[in-house]
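#onboarding

Welcome to the new folks! Below is a worked example of what a typical request in this channel looks like: someone posts a single protein sequence, and someone else replies with the predicted structure as tokens. Don't worry about understanding the tokens yet, we'll cover that in week two.

Example request:
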Amino acid sequence: MSRLIQSTGFLALLLLGGCARLPQQLDLPPTTAFEAVEDTPLGRAWRSDPHSRQGLSSFHLLGNGLDAFVARAVLAQVAARSIDLQYYMIHDDHVGTLLMEKVLEAADRGVRVRILLDDIDEGHRDFKLVAFDRHPNIEVRIFNPFGRNVSRLWQYISGFGRQTRRAHNKSFTVDNMATILGGRNIGDEYFERDPELAFQDLDVLGIGPVAKEVSRSFDLYWNHPLSYPARSLAIRLPTEADYVRLRKQFEKRASQYRRSPYVERLRNSVLARKLRAGQVDYTWTRAEVFADPPDKLLQPTSQADSRMMRQLLPHLESAQRELVVISPYFVPGKEGVAFFRKLRNRGVRVRVLTNSLASTDVSLVHAGYIRYRKALLRMGVELWELNRITTPEERKEMSEGYVGKSRSSLHAKAFVVDRDALFIGSLNLDPRSVVQNTEIGVWIESPELAGGVAEEFQRRIAREAFRLELVKDPKTGQERILWHGWENGREVTFDQEPHAGFWRRLGVFLVRWLPIESQI
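Example response:
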């Protein structure tokens, strides 16, 4: 929904509004990540492996929601000095409550907690956030905030080109030694808990130098002029009595989830035990963190040298045999089409997985994507669109312990080059991620991990997604697209967007002609 508002806010120009006001920035001393962390449990575990003396980082993929929850929760449990969270969204739902409970417990032990949130979804929760901030070991800041005196929709309109640009970064870093990067925000739908929508997502846990690179990016955002203390934005500050009352409410809500599959997995899963014992099967390798600078939100969108894509693109262009693109929001634009054509002219196999119209949570993005489908198919790019329909057995396999009954939607963001290296992060291959928002991710040089993701793609794609085929009518010569897939154990073919109703298809057809591609 937030992305929908970003994409369509300018259509509401008839709404009345006023001038948004922000408080004067406080003159706060800068704070940074702790450097002397080798004596922490995470530091000792990393140093105990001979690979650490080569300056390598260790990585472990988190491909399902329960394991992604466990990894974050265990890191919070073993944290000795600091926890830094930077997210686009943190929801106060089932998973959000259970994860933040572990963060709060760490703060109670004396761990310093810094929470940095984009303001896309936080205005209605200022009071609770500031109450959290009252904890002596927790500080909450809001990045690129909206004024609290004017409606947000109006600020999208009046601040178009600034307030429509958001910090989409996602990272969970503990003791400057371990970090989790990927596509997941903190909320039920990102951890396969939502009863209506199950995002298929991907994170990676990294330990060692990679965490220090993420911390450097976090510190830039944390100390940036666009980063406001949550308490400076709140219309009313909570008292100590308010803090006590809200904390009791939080603890009561958390206690109601004690029978949650997530709590059970945290207690008894193999991953949880191995994480606590430092015995996870890690892949040791070199890696590089790519992150947009926070100044990107203040600079003209034409200033390409401020984009992380400028640094990432040569790695993608280096593909000699195969490029796999996994992007839920895929709008390549003319430059992207030219990039793929260059690869295809060199004989590189290009495979793209994105959402179908039925599986996407943002139909407007699909309107941008469909402009380029035929051009990509003509040059031999293989397009796959996720099928929102899955059997119970397939859902269980996807999540390894699925706890809801949801429609599937792709949310993972990853690129695999020649099965030798891969990128995992928050970056979608669309104008909003590349040009408008700020993003972060990690480039990992590992045939083991890259090959594993490519093999999993190969193994599951035919059963879980539609393969698009461009065919020409022999009588009229007109081109049209067919969708080939599997449902209920048999092959099926559609000649229009599968499982999308007439009105949804019509809406996307009409919207595709609007000049809004830069915002989707």
